[in-house]
Write a structure and sequence with these properties.
Layout: H1 16-46, H2 48-59, H3 63-91, H4 93-110, H5 117-131, H6 134-143, H7 148-179, H8 188-210, H9 223-239, H10 248-252, H11 255-284, H12 290-318, H13 322-337, H14 346-367, H15 370-374, H16 380-391, H17 393-409, H18 413-433
Helix pairs in contact: 1-4, 1-7, 1-8, 2-8, 2-11, 3-4, 3-5, 3-6, 3-16, 3-17, 4-5, 4-6, 4-8, 6-16, 7-8, 7-12, 7-14, 11-12, 11-14, 11-16, 11-17, 11-18, 12-14, 13-14, 13-18, 17-18
Length: 444
């Protein structure tokens, strides 16, 4: 009688303990490193909010000009996001992340040497072009390893990197601005870009050596574990087969695709307040020490991390995405809408930023469980990339609106009210525009 190997995943009545072991191994192999990469991504994308406290006077930026510069990041991002995702599907994640991270690290560090608004604008466009494809690429990469019923919790954990980045970025950026200004004749904001940009270059080189493109190529999995993963992913694809899109052009003919795109358009509106304008809002409430601003700006990310994880876990448990997204949108809208009323109260401002951050992060993580479950595997690469790319119009318009309001009305209140309205409309786009039956997910 032949004895089954100890690595077999079918040696129990249900297979569940073994399945958990396989997914645990995959998660611990892939997620920690991708998590760190995403921390670097948001650190390099959002540190301009802290640099703005110091460098706007040096290069002559008004609030409106700064808002335009922030928005220009998304122009470069949009232009290269879909091509990057299609390239990842063709050549794999290792080569794709090598290119993305090395380039964005170089551009981010190079922002230390801008001297004019025009140079700042160019640097932001180049940073967006360099980073384009990282986030949707990782979302696509998860579909190669995890079935839909597990992706919300994996995505939520991955996106907690945004919170970690915010927790790190505030105190670190504040300390750099306070302590390193004048060292070797460089300003504090120049050191900020240099020290926070270069680690991404190292991470990109490591990604090429460390990651595995597909389960069948994973030398760190047994043959039984590979077969199990591939069979689970095949079953997942079959669940969506009845609603499969033959090409992205077929998907583009469906109104649901545009409801999804508008829903994602609403997410950057909330993110701009949290990532870019929060330091300025805190400073205007009367806090002038950069280190203290950094510490206060870190608090909302701690709350946001817990809220995002709980929302993702509950969404997976109920296998419900739409109303969880709507609840997150309402939290973001509520927190942002009340910020102008608390403009002179730093403690209340931080509490409202906690609510807004929890809502924004919930929207972001929950949204990206929907397109992979809605789109067939044949168009997932282009579909996810296109939704993400078109949604970046929100990243262009939001900072421009807030910056314009700050410059021309002497207050950002009108811009913040606009953010609240767009957040609510984004939630309604998912609830009203995407029927529950259109999201194909199976319970394990």
């Amino acid at each position: 009688m032949q004895v089954a190997p100890s690595s077999s995943i079918d040696d129990s009545a249900t297979g569940q303990p073994e399945a958990e072991g396989v997914y645990r191994k995959v998660t611990w192999r892939l997620l920690p490193f991708l998590f760190v990469c995403y921390v670097f991504a948001y650190l390099d994308r959002a540190n301009v909010g802290f640099a703005h406290l110091q460098f706007s006077k040096d290069i002559g930026l008004s609030d409106a000009a700064f808002g335009l510069g922030v928005g220009l990041f998304y122009v470069g991002y949009m232009l290269f996001e879909v091509p990057s995702n299609l390239w990842l599907a063709r050549v794999g994640v290792r080569k794709t992340l090598l290119r993305i991270m090395v380039l964005w690290g170089i551009v981010s560090a190079g922002t230390a040497f801008v001297h004019t608004p025009t140079q700042f604008y160019i640097a932001r466009v180049l940073l967006g072009a360099a980073e384009a494809g990282f986030f949707p690429g990782v979302i696509l990469y998860f579909t190669y390893w995890f079935p839909a019923a597990r992706r919300a919790r994996v995505t939520s954990i991955f996106m907690t990197a945004i919170c970690v980045s915010g927790i790190i970025s505030g105190p670190l950026s504040g300390w750099i601005l306070n302590s390193m200004s004048g060292l070797f004749d460089y300003k504090g904001w120049q050191w900020l870009f240099l020290l926070e940009g270069l680690p991404s270059v190292v991470a990109g080189l490591f990604a090429y050596a460390y990651l595995t493109d597909r389960p069948e190529q994973a030398t760190w999995l047994s043959d039984d574990e590979k077969a199990f993963l591939l069979s689970e992913l095949k079953r997942d694809a079959q669940t969506k087969a009845g609603r499969a899109h033959g090409s992205i052009w077929v998907a583009l003919k469906e109104p649901k695709f545009y409801f999804l795109t508008f829903a994602y358009f609403s997410v950057p509106w909330a993110s701009i307040v949290v990532h870019i304008w929060a330091p300025s809002v805190i400073q205007k409430s009367g806090v002038t020490n950069f280190w203290h601003i950094g510490l206060l700006s870190a608090i909302p990310y701690v709350v946001g991390a817990a809220a995002m994880y709980l929302l993702g876990r509950n969404s997976d448990r109920m296998l419900e995405r739409r109303w969880h997204f709507m609840a997150s949108a309402l939290m973001a809208a509520f927190g942002v809408a009340l910020l102008p009323a608390a403009a002179n109260h730093a403690g209340v401002l931080v509490a409202l930023l906690c609510v807004a951050t929890a809502g924004y992060l919930g929207m972001l993580s929950l949204f990206w469980t929907i397109p992979p479950a809605y789109l067939s595997s044949t168009v997932a690469a282009s579909g996810i990339g296109l939704i993400s790319s078109l949604g970046q119009f929100g990243g262009i318009s939001a900072p421009t609106v807030i910056g314009f309001a700050s410059t021309h009305f002497g207050s950002s209140a009108m811009g913040l009210y606009a953010v609240s309205v767009v957040s609510i409309l984004g939630g309604l786009a998912v609830v009203l525009g995407i029927p529950a039956r259109a999201i194909s997910e199976r319970r394990e």
